[in-house]
Structures are given as C-alpha cells and as structure tokens.
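Worked example (supplementary).
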Amino acid sequence: MLDINNLSKSFGGVMAVDDVTFEVASGTIHSVIGPNGAGKTTLFNLITGVYTPTCGNVLFSGKDITGMRPDQLAGLGMSRTFQNLRVCMNMSACENVMLGAHLRLNHGILAGMANLPALARRDAECRDEAHGFMQFAGVGQYVDAHASQMPFGALKRLEIARALATKPTILLLDEPAAGLNHTETGEISELIKKIAGSGLTVVLVEHDMKMVMNISDFVTVLNYGTRLASGTVAEVRQNPEVISAYLGTSVQ
Amino acid sequence: MKTFIRPSVLIVIFVLCMLPFAFPNAYIVDVAIRICLAGIVAIGLNLLMGFAGQVSIGHAAFVALGAYASGVATIRYGWSPLFALAVGAVGVAVLAYLVAKPILRLRDHTLTMATLGLGIIVHMVLVNEVAWTGGPDGMAVGPMKIGDWVLKGEMSWYALVACLLVLAIVISLNLFSSPAGRALRALHGSEVAAAVMGVNVPSFKVRVFVLSAVFASIAGSLTAHYNSFITPSLAGFMPSVELATMVVVGGMASTFGVVLGACLVVGLPQVFGGFEGFEMVFFGLALMLTVIFMPKGIVPSFAQRFAKRKS
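After joint prediction of all chains, the assembly is encoded as:
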C-alpha cells in the first residue's frame, strides 16, 4: 500500500528523518512511535506532501508520489489529520467536513458564482453526506455548530470526519489522542478500529502506548530520525533497542 | 437565481428602490451612486480578503487601471465605452494574473507590503505617462454610452449602479456557499488543511486575485464615465486603505457587512462634513471604536449576538 524507501529530510544541519524505510500493508493499522523529537510528524509531513524529502522516495499503491502536493495526493486517496488542530475556525463544523468533498464537486469559481441548479443539488447531497461522516465520527450533535464553538475533543473528531469525507484509501492520523483524557482516548481507539474495519489503511502517530499496543497491527519505532525497529506489536515489545530507547539501559 | 429572492437580498433591493423617493435630492443620489460603486469594488476585494484571507492594500490600483483603460480607449482611440470597459477588464485580469503568481507566494505582512508596492507602481505610471494619461493633471472622460443611447442624469446612473450592486451581492452570496467559496474560506482558516482536502492552493489564490481585480476594474471604468474626469490619485494610498477598511469594518467574509462598510466609509465623511476639517477625526474615531468593540466587523458581531439571544 505505502512503501517508504530511504526517506530523509534535513533542516539545515539537523537530520529530522534519516534514511527511514518501512512498508505499510493494505487494510492494517500501522503505528509510528518514538520519543519526542524522533521525527514522527516530519515523517508524516514528508509522506503527505507538506514537506519535500531531501532524498528517498514514497510509493503509494506502486506509484511514486515523492514531491507531489497534498491536493494531488488527496486526489489519489490519501488523507490525514494534524497534531495541532487545523480546523478552519472561520467556518461551520459541517462546512469543514463538506470541504472534504471538494474534489468530487464542481469547484470552479464561475460555477460557484452562478450557483446553477445542478451544483446546488449536488451541494445539498454533499451536506447530507457530511452529516453521515460527522455521525460516524461521533460529532453528529454538532451539525449546526460553528467550529469555533466546539470543545477540543470534538474538534479532533471533526478533523477525522473531514479526512474521511475525502473518501481516502489511506488515512494518516497524527496523535489523535493527544490532549484527550482516559475515557476519550478509549473512544478514539474504538473509532480508529471502526475506520480500519471499514477497509481503510490507517497510519498512526501516537504517544499513548496503551492505545498503540491495543489497536495496532504493526509498529515502527523511530529514534533521533532513524528507524529503530519495525514489526508486529509483540516483536517490537521484545526488541532490546526499543526498550533501551524508552526505558534506558540497565546499569551493569 | 434563487439567491435574488432571499429575504436579505429583497430587503436590499427594497431599500435601493425606495432611496430616491425618500431623498429626492441630487446630492444624496450622488452619494448613493458613490456608495454603490465603492460597494462593488469592496465586494470584489472581500472575495480576496474576507473569503481567502489575503490582505491587499493596493486594490485601488485596479480601480484606477479600469478607469484609465476606459478613459484612454474612449478619448484617445474613440472606442465605444462598453467595449472599452470589457477590454479594460480583460486587460486588468491578465495583469492581475501575471502579478498574482509571484505576489501570492508571499504571506501575511509581506503580501500586504507587495500589494502596497503594486499600488505605488501603478500610481507612478499614471503620473508619468503624460502622453496617454494626461499626467498628474488627469484627463477628461466622455459620458457612458450604450450604442447611441447616452447615460445621463443622476437617476439613470443610480439605476445602473444599483442593479450592478445587487448583481455583485448575489454573485458573492452564491460563491460564499458554493464548493469554490468553501475552498477559498478554507485558505483563510488553514492553508495546509485546505491542501490536504484537495484544494489547489496556489491556483485558487491566483484566481480569486484576478476575480477581485476584475470587479475593481469594472467599477473603475464606470467611475471614470460618471465623474467625467480622472486623476492618478484614484490609485493613491488612501483609496486603497479605504477599500480595505470597508471590508474590515463591515465584516470580513460577510457580503452585507462589506456593503455596510462601503456605506460608512463613503457616507460618514459626508455626515461629518459640517465639522470642517474635523470630519476625519470623527471618521477615524468611528473606525477605531468598531475595531476595538467589534473585531469581527459590524454585521458578523450583530449576527452573533442575535443568534445567542435566540438560543
């Protein structure tokens, strides 16, 4: 599904991501973990076209997508959420989700100015569809709300609903549980399982280890920008290098 | 089409129709015409500033270019005014397209500075190209003619610009709630989120810049014929700032807010005209108070308060 080959990104002299290679299998939940500053978010930004890699490449369903813009990747079926919320606060909750349907609608400026009947009809359908995605993500009660009136936890779900509205085949979630309490984290885990259950491939960056170990099929561990380990949850747990990165080495 | 029969639009149409009966004097009608023309430009600028969040303080340059395109083409080359208006709008669109590519790669303050620079350059060109523009003294422009019919008298002008204002309002409202309008507003909210949702960010920025320039150019052409005299001060710093003020005070992204902004910015100095020289003080004070107490702009602030009381 997603092949990341020797991907590197340097900011000045700092190698934020250094020669990382791993593969995400179709239909799985694949987590990327690592201590703070390990390069997880940078890796996400490289995959989703927000940054351009210094070297290496990314294959998506066999197609080389290195250096493509995020909007082009959206057309290919890749969507994501953000660690720091990127909800459009100047729009309503529903409009945020409808934005996900952008590429499926006639988004010409002249067409919008004329608001032809066909366009208006498709737009109404899109609104109903958006309600469905909001219901699915558990923010159905905010259908009439403005984004700026919503609490933090709901905004995180709204971002997921918006990402789903692009009808992606792969969804990258950047710390979906960050800033959430214990109960909310549990609920988000259930939502992610539900998303993966519907046939999507999910790539997850997360700090909450309990959540990662509970829902992931595969885990890749980063440390100082390099890949420390990659494998199933059980394999990664046993890996001595991973243990030392997280817990430190024992004094001998 | 349905947008024309929205209650809010019907109210505007009603007010525009009643105005000449309520104030049957030429001075008020003249002010109303100026408000309508400014309103059309401000609605266009709002697409760029209010919707897409790209602040421009050089927008009067496009008004001036439209005005001079009409002036030069009709006087020096004898073109018909309507044809000159159309060609002027196309020319301004091409120029805006060429300028937009490098300018819109800039963000926030740097973009604002670049638009300011654009305004200054246009002003300089109009002042210096004496052979075409008449230089700092300006040039006379003939009346608006459609075929053989000459548009004259305050009331015919008022009817024309009022219709165009309603058309601009309807276009803006349509765009606001369309997929393209959502994409533009998403640029304001979060560029990276818009991109991830599939919005081609650079292309949308360029297109909305061109569109807002065309609104300005058309209004500029009409202004030239209405005033029958144009000077390079049309492209000056103050007109640009006034346009930006209309958008900010009335309410970013709110179409009716921007029209109200045009009423205030054009109308208030007339109201305070009796204070001889102090009118700008009152004007500035009114603007400051609005920005301090209603940072979102007048119309969105009241809409919010009204919505709260209802719920």
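Two points are worth noting when inspecting this output. The domain at 1-77+168-252 of chain A is CATH 3.40.50.300 (Rossmann fold). Chain A has a mean pLDDT of 91.
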